[in-house]
Write a structure and sequence with these properties.
Chain lengths: 114, 114
């Protein structure tokens, strides 16, 4: 099976812009979780989508949003970018059913905000 | 490669020795734990998991120990190899309602000397 893919791998934006990141999960996986990784805060949970519905959310401002499509692909969007949004954004896919919590991570998207 | 942490605790071991990486988790109600390995420029890779109704689980060259009394998790790597050099994270979750919402530790950098 192909692994989790994320596009783009690298992105440079300026403050105030918005950005959309994409994640394609492993075939058959219905859950996609997003994490932000920074040197200062480590890995922090953003949100999780399952069957096109957000079923969990972390403590991030409303500028961070996401969605999931019927093929389980997911996108996250960050509006009105701030310098502090510079981070590695990771997505993890899992089957999503009860007892199946092992997450498989993609390589991440490195976002730099100037 | 990308830096995943500026001030991570570092464990340096000689190739062939055993490594023990420790993690203090935060919530006494946590019922599921995962150890991940992250190499520079890559997303976290699943190593081993354990449920709270167990205190030990073994994989290939790795063993996870769980001590719920002191909220402590450890990862033991036997016969450490240069390819084991990476940052290691423990992750915890609790509650059925949290589905795949994981909380990650700050990580430990393992440096294997040939």
């Amino acid at each position: 099976k192909a692994g989790v893919t994320q596009t783009p791998r690298y992105l440079i934006k300026t403050r105030g812009q918005q950005v959309t990141l994409s994640c394609s999960p492993i075939s058959g996986h219905r859950s996609v979780s997003w994490y932000q990784q920074t040197p200062g805060q480590g890995l922090q949970f953003l949100f999780e989508y399952f069957s096109e519905t957000q079923r969990n959310k972390g403590n991030f401002p409303g500028r961070f949003s996401g969605r999931q499509f019927s093929n389980s692909r997911s996108e996250m969007n960050v509006s009105t970018l701030e310098l502090g949004d510079s981070a590695l954004y990771l997505c993890a896919s899992s089957p999503g059913t009860s007892g199946q919590h092992r997450g498989f991570f993609g390589p991440g998207t490195r976002l730099t905000v100037l | 490669g990308e830096s995943v942490g500026l001030h991570l605790p570092t464990l340096s071991v000689q190739e062939g020795d055993n490594s023990i990486i420790n993690c203090a988790y935060s919530n006494s109600a946590s019922d599921y734990f995962i150890w991940y390995k992250q190499e520079s420029g890559k997303g976290p890779q699943f190593i081993i998991d354990i449920r709270s109704n167990m205190d030990k689980r073994q994989g290939q060259r790795v063993t996870v120990l769980l001590n719920k009394t002191v909220k402590h998790l450890s990862l033991q790597i036997a016969a450490t190899q240069p390819g084991d050099s990476a940052v290691y994270f423990c992750a915890e979750k609790w509650g059925l309602q949290n589905f795949n919402k994981f909380y990650f530790g700050s990580g430990t950098k393992l440096n294997v000397k040939p």
